[in-house]
From TrEMBL:
<feature type="domain" description="BPL/LPL catalytic">
    <location>
        <begin position="7"/>
        <end position="193"/>
    </location>
</feature>
<dbReference type="InterPro" id="IPR045864">
    <property type="entry name" value="aa-tRNA-synth_II/BPL/LPL"/>
</dbReference>
<protein>
    <submittedName>
        <fullName>Biotin/lipoate--protein ligase family protein</fullName>
    </submittedName>
</protein>
<keyword id="KW-0436">Ligase</keyword>
<dbReference type="Pfam" id="PF16917">
    <property type="entry name" value="BPL_LplA_LipB_2"/>
</dbReference>
<dbReference type="InterPro" id="IPR004143">
    <property type="entry name" value="BPL_LPL_catalytic"/>
</dbReference>
<dbReference type="GO" id="GO:0016874">
    <property type="term" value="F:ligase activity"/>
</dbReference>
Length: 249
């Protein structure tokens, strides 16, 4: 069991024991009217998992930008703690890439009925989930045998603890949320771009039965991906994040 963690006062922390899912707990609480900034975190020394109840006050297409706020917060959190030779990048829309391999990511959950609503309504509730692969699973291949997935331990970050990362992430997420609320997505997009995997490269994306090709240029004002040299220059978040594009299982 982790020691009691220290979070900024705005959060309402809730410890979740191993064997339970913080994301599921947060979604259930959000549906029951939990306060925004309720923070559900997994009490585990080997798994980083947390979920935050959001307070949506804008249409779904804009609420989804919370994914990028969380990614930038993760980038800052890890950038300040991992060894300098460890490269931390963002795989649009929701993946965390460490030294070229998947190490975690972000999810966003809302009422499923909203995804196909053409009116772009404001969600009654929304929950952000974050997971990081801290240490290898017992059945994982030897380090270096696969480049599809990795862990922070395998990349030389064995001194990091889930407790310290949770505390750090909560502070960085609060900072960037405040920036987003006061200045919009532009400062987040400007911080996201330098860590964008395949920035300036030709990419081929396949999500939800749709395909996009083009040069990865950056984010638009709602967090969609801007592509160059293509007939479809924008990939909206609403088309790709109804389910996570990644898995650590």
């Amino acid at each position: 069991m982790l020691d009691e963690l220290s979070f900024p006062p705005i959060y309402r922390p809730c410890r979740v024991l191993e064997g339970s899912d913080p994301l599921e707990a947060a979604i259930a609480a959000a549906k029951d009217g939990a306060d925004p900034a309720s923070l559900f975190w997994l009490d585990s020394a080997t798994d980083f998992a947390c979920a935050i109840v959001l307070g949506p006050d804008r249409p779904l297409s804009e609420t989804l930008a919370a994914v990028h706020v969380a990614m930038v917060a993760l980038g800052d959190c890890l950038g300040a703690t991992v060894p300098p030779q460890v490269e931390v990048l963002f795989g649009w829309p929701d993946r965390l890439i460490v030294n070229g391999a998947l190490a975690g990511g972000v999810t966003i959950s809302v009422d499923p009925a909203l995804w196909d609503d053409p009116e772009d309504p404001e969600p009654e509730w929304a929950v952000l989930g974050i997971r990081l692969a801290m240490t290898p699973r017992d059945d994982a291949p030897e380090p270096g045998m696969t480049r599809q997935r990795t862990t922070l331990f395998d990349e030389g970050c064995g001194d990091l603890t889930t407790g310290s990362l949770l505390e750090s992430f909560s502070r960085h997420f609060l900072l960037w949320t405040n920036r987003y609320l006061s200045e919009g997505l532009r400062p987040i997009a400007d911080m996201w771009l330098p860590r964008a995997a395949k920035r300036g490269e030709n990419v081929e994306l396949k999500f939800g039965g749709k395909e996009w090709r083009g040069t990865l240029l950056g984010l638009d004002e709602k967090g969609g991906l801007v592509l160059g040299e293509t007939k479809t220059p924008l990939v909206p978040l609403t088309d790709v994040v109804r389910k996570p594009t990644w898995s650590l299982d």
